[in-house]
Amino acid sequence: MTAIQSIRLVVLTSAVAACNASGGGEAAPAPSPAVAPPAAAPAPAPTPAPAGSPTARKVPVAPDQPVVDIIVDASGYNPPVVTVEKGKPTRFRVKRVFERTCADGIRVPAAGIDEALPLGKTVEFALAVDADTPFGCPMGMMIAGKIAVR
Q1: Is 15 left (phi over 0), alpha (psi -120 to 50) or beta?
Q2: Residue 139 and residue 111: Cα distance in Å, rounded?
Q3: How far apart are CA 141 and CA 150, in angstroms?
Q4: Cα(129)–Cα(108) distance, rounded to whole angstroms?
Q5: What confidence tens digit (pLDDT) does each residue in 3-35 have?
Q6: How far is CA 99 from the centre of its chain?
């Protein structure tokens, strides 16, 4: 095993342990700092995404939109890859049916989506996706999927 492989194994093992220790995705409380943090600097102006990067935008939910259903079970997001029409607003319905999973939420960073998935409840949002876009668990490390465009 190379040094890089050893480091990757340690990082992955730590992530799994953190996920399991937190009850399957709930973040452990952060330790309180001994000294107050410095004042935050103003946020930099957003920069345009480079060509070819994943792009998606949140749009209002409408009844005439195509629907993509995703179930979160013991194996993660199912199906793990969903296909949508490029640029066409699509409604996503996500339901978690398995209790102990890191996928107790769904993040679509390209669209600013970060939704909790209460057990047994369906969460809806709509996106217009212009390029293949990843989504995943709130930790952003363990369970993931992809929105593919055609």
Answers
A1: alpha
A2: 16
A3: 26
A4: 11
A5: 444 334 333 434 444 444 444 444 444 444 455
A6: 17
